[in-house]
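Section 5.1 Outputs to date
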Amino acid sequence: MARPQPASFPTIYLSHFELYVDNAAAMEDFYTRHLGFVVTDRGEGKNAMIFLSRNPNEHHQLALNPQQTHKPIESPVNHISALILLLI
């Protein structure tokens, strides 16, 4: 009896993730000072999002969102994005 072939999966890369934060300034300081991220962009105003990256080819790998979540289950994660190079 022939052995079944394993399924073939495309290569998946982590693109970015967005976090809800209570203190955006403190989180920006932590990610830039201790983890080597660089601020690549930011919105305007008190509740502006902050975009950071460690890769100069990526606009952002991390987004800090000081807005309150309105989800029924509280979580610091807004979303996680993946990059799939080839989908067959």
